[in-house]
Write a structure and sequence with these properties.
This protein has about 375 residues and is of the alpha+beta class. It has helices at about 25-30, 60-65, 75-80, 90-105, 130-145, 155-165, 180-185, 195-205, 210-215, 220-225, 225-240, 270-290, 320-330; strands at about 15-20, 40-45, 55-60, 85, 110-115, 120-125, 150-155, 170-175, 255-265, 295-300, 305-315, 340-350. The strands form 3 sheets. A 5-stranded mixed sheet has the order 5-6-1-7-8.
C-alpha cells in the first residue's frame, strides 16, 4: 500500500460569503421592460408620486441624483422629473428571489442563510474563495440574468461589510488580517448594525472611528448601552463574531401591517376602524403560523412627520377578541384631535419550543 494514500486530504478552509443582488428590484423591472436599461428607474408605492408613498428602490442611474430607499416618492420625482416611476410588484420580486436562492443552494457544499429578497450568507469550504464567488456570480447571472456582489469574510460581520467594497458586480475580501487596515479610520456608522443614533451616542463617548470602537473602554460602552449591547458594539468594531452560516428556516417573531392615508385622519371612529382592519389582516397571518400572541405594537405617524410607537406585553392568547381589546387600549393612547398620516399594528408571537437558544436566525444574521 502506498504510504501517501493513507494521509488524509486537508479540509478546505471555511469561508463566509455575503451575496447581495445589485439594485435588485430595479434590475428585475428592467428584465421585464428591457427598454428601461440605462434610465433612472424608481420603484415605490403604486407608482404615483402624487400619493403618499416612499421609494422601495432606485436604479444606479436614479441614485446619481440622490434618490434612495425610504425617500418620499414626491421628492424623488422632484429630483428626477423624467424618471420612470413604477409600482411595487412583490410577487414578481419574490419569484426572482427564489430563483436566486435556489442557485445559491446548488453551489458545491453551500449552506445558505437567507436574509431577505436580495441577500444571503453562503457558507462554503474552499481554498480559493474569490474563484468560488466568481463561479457563484456567473451561475446566478446565467440562471436569472441578475448581477450580484459578493463579500468574502472569516465572520458574518466581515463578509457583510466587505460586500459594500465589491459593488457593483465585484468581490472583496475582509478578514482579521486586513479589517483595521480597511475599516479602522472609517466612521462607526459604516458598520453593519450601527445607525445614525448609535453613532452619535458613540461620538459622545469620544468614539468616532471603527478603530476607536475596537479598543473602546468596556465600562463606558456598557454604561451607555448596557452590558450586552455595549460589549457587542465593541466586538463589532473588531469585525468579530459568529462565523457560522445557519440555514435554519427563518421564523417570524411577529406580523405587522401599516397603511399611509392619502389624506390625514382625525376622527376617533375612523382611526379605530383603520386599526381594526389592520389587526384583522395581522391576525389572519398569525393564525396561519398557529402561535399565540404575546405582545402588541401600535405605530402612529402624526402630521407632518412625527412617529410614535406604543407597545405592551399581554398574556399568551389566541383569542382574537382579547387581542382586539388590548389593541384598542393602545389606540386610546393616540393624542386626540391630532391629524394622523400613518397607522401600523403589530402582533408578537410566542417562539416555537425548538427555537435555537430562545430565538431563530434573523434577517440581519444575528
Amino acid at each position: 500500500m502506498n504510504a501517501d494514500a493513507a494521509v488524509p486530504t486537508p479540509a478546505a478552509k471555511p469561508w463566509v460569503l455575503h451575496v447581495d443582488l445589485d439594485q435588485f428590484i430595479a434590475a428585475v423591472e428592467v428584465l421585464r421592460r428591457p427598454e428601461l436599461a440605462g434610465k433612472p428607474v424608481i420603484v415605490g408605492g403604486r407608482g404615483d408620486p402624487t400619493e403618499r408613498a416612499v421609494v422601495s428602490t432606485a436604479s444606479y442611474e436614479a441614485r446619481e441624483f440622490g434618490v434612495g430607499s425610504g425617500m418620499p416618492l414626491r421628492i424623488a420625482a422632484r429630483k428626477i422629473p423624467d424618471a420612470v416611476i413604477l409600482p411595487v410588484d412583490a410577487p414578481l420580486y419574490l419569484a426572482a428571489s427564489e430563483q436566486v436562492m435556489a442557485t445559491l443552494r446548488a453551489q458545491p457544499g453551500a449552506v445558505v442563510q437567507v436574509l431577505g429578497w436580495d441577500e444571503a450568507f453562503v457558507g462554503a469550504g474552499t481554498d480559493d474563495p474569490e474563484a468560488y464567488a466568481r463561479r457563484l456570480q456567473q451561475d446566478v447571472l446565467d440562471r436569472t440574468r441578475l448581477h450580484c456582489s459578493v463579500g468574502i469574510g472569516d465572520t458574518l460581520v466581515r463578509a457583510k461589510v466587505a460586500t459594500g467594497f465589491g459593488k457593483p458586480r465585484g468581490t472583496f475580501r475582509l478578514t482579521a488580517d486586513n479589517w483595521l487596515e480597511v475599516m479602522g479610520e472609517r466612521p462607526t456608522i459604516e458598520l453593519w448594525g450601527v445607525g445614525s443614533k448609535v453613532s452619535k451616542r458613540l461620538a459622545l463617548l469620544g468614539v468616532r472611528t471603527v478603530a476607536e470602537l475596537a479598543v473602546a473602554d468596556e465600562t463606558a460602552l456598557t454604561g451607555e448601552f448596557g452590558p450586552r449591547m455595549g460589549l457587542w458594539y465593541r466586538q463589532l468594531g473588531r469585525g468579530d463574531g459568529s462565523a457560522v452560516v445557519d440555514d435554519t428556516p427563518w421564523v417570524a417573531r411577529g406580523h405587522s401591517k401599516e397603511t399611509t392615508f392619502q389624506a390625514d385622519i382625525v376622527d376617533p371612529a375612523e382611526i379605530e376602524a383603520a386599526a381594526r382592519s389592520l389587526l384583522d389582516q395581522v391576525l389572519d397571518e398569525v393564525a396561519a403560523d398557529d402561535r399565540p400572541v404575546v405582545g402588541l405594537g401600535l405605530k402612529v405617524r402624526y402630521a407632518p412627520f412625527l412617529t410614535k410607537t406604543f407597545t405592551k406585553k399581554i398574556p399568551s392568547t389566541a383569542d382574537r377578541a382579547v387581542v382586539l381589546a388590548r389593541t384598542l387600549e393602545l389606540v386610546a393612547k393616540i393624542e386626540p384631535g391630532r391629524p394622523i398620516r400613518l397607522l401600523g399594528v403589530r402582533a408578537e408571537m410566542a417562539m416555537p419550543d425548538d427555537a435555537r437558544e430562545g430565538h431563530t436566525p434573523t434577517r440581519g444574521g444575528w
